Model the fold of this input.
Amino acid sequence: MQATISDEELRELLPRLRRFAQWLTREPSSADDLVQNCLERALSRWQSRDPQASLRAWLFTIMYRQFVDSRRRSNRIQRFFERFQEEPELAPSAEDAVIANASLEAFGQLSPDHRAILLMVTVEGFSYQETADTLGLPLGTVMSRLSRARSAYRALTEGEASPAPLRRIK
Done:
C-alpha cells in the first residue's frame, strides 16, 4: 500500500478535480475551496483508502460527498435564519375585522341558554356530560340545545332570519 499520494498523480488529477468542482459549484472561488477541502480530506484519510480502488474515483467521490454535505448544511443554516427574518404579523385586514365583529354580534343575539351551551362546549372544550352536570340539565337536553344553538348561530352569520326560539317543555 502506498503511504502517500505522489506529486505526479496529484498534478494529473488536479485539472479534472477543478473542472468537476467548477461544474458542481458554478463559482471559481467555491470550486477552488471544494478542491482544497477534498484533497485535505483525502490526505487525512489516506490510510483508510482501499489500495485496489481507483484514486481518481475515490477523490471524485470525496468531492461529491463534500459538495452535497455543504449544500445540506447551507440549506439548514438558511432555514434557521429564515425563522428570525420572518416579517412581523400584520394587523388583520378590514374584511377580517368586519367578519369578526359580525360574528360576535351574531353570538350576542343568541339567547342566554344557547350562548352558555355554545361557550361551554365549543370554546371551553367541556364534554356534553360536563356541560350537563354544570348546568343541571339532562344530557339529551344539552345535545338538543347545542344543535339548536349551532343552527341559530349559523342562520345569523349567514344572513338568515332571527334565531329559532328556545322551546321549554314542562
Notes: The chain has seven helices and no strands.
